[in-house]
Model the fold of this input.
Amino acid sequence: MDSSPASSDISPEIVALRASSFGGQAAAYAAERPDYPDAAVVWALEPVSARTPLRVLDLAAGTGKLTAGLLRHTTDVVAVEPDPAMLTELRRGLPDTRALAGTAEEIPLPDESVDAVVIGQALHWFDLDRALPEMARVLTRGGVLAGLWNLDDDNVPWVKGLKTASGSRVSFSRWRGHATLAPSPYFPAVEFGKFSHVQRRTAESMAATVGTHSHVLILSDGERTELMNRVLGYLRATPETASGEFELPLVTVTARAIRG
Done:
């Protein structure tokens, strides 16, 4: 539901504000956001999975949601994150993981130092004119770039209703995050995969998850309160979500490309 920019939606200033909004809710982000299905991580790393050691960069790593999944496949993971609060939360949760301050446009790693650059829920915020050559620079020959996005499955009627209930004046009207990774001289061919996933939620924790979405974070206090009350009211009135725990159905869209 935390969609990426569509060019006709809202101003570049709002897009930039949304992109930088997460740090103030770093602890909530760590607690409430879903992880990533292992099948999607395996598929993302497949082109380089035979390399030993397999060296992976989790770029714009946030609080480490994807980092933890990558660590199930290799111990050689470095996380890079620009927001100090998110980086602090990542270091708290994964104290043995190398975690550096840095951006996609200025990656603090040497040339050809990693076999995979993996990005969870963030590629669409990058300045790709600067980030693509940087990501290609730190990748080894034949290395893989992969982006993963967890999306609520709004083919399910109650999830579609929740999307409507949680909309705001700064919501993006359509999701196009995966389209940001298009063929380029650095990455000539792009493949896509989709993977089913679920997250156990209650009405309260689902509302808290919505509260970590960037379009909610930049609202005024009054607008945010109104939206959160509307979301919680919808969840408590909907049979599938009204009582106890339920499963939020997700689709993890994954894009991967080999360094040219």
User: Anything to note?
Assistant: The two ends are 32 Å apart (CA to CA). The beta strands are 56-59, 77-81, 98-101, 114-120, 139-152, 190-201, 246-258. Residues 12-152+172-199+249-258 form a domain with the Rossmann fold fold (CATH 3.40.50.150).
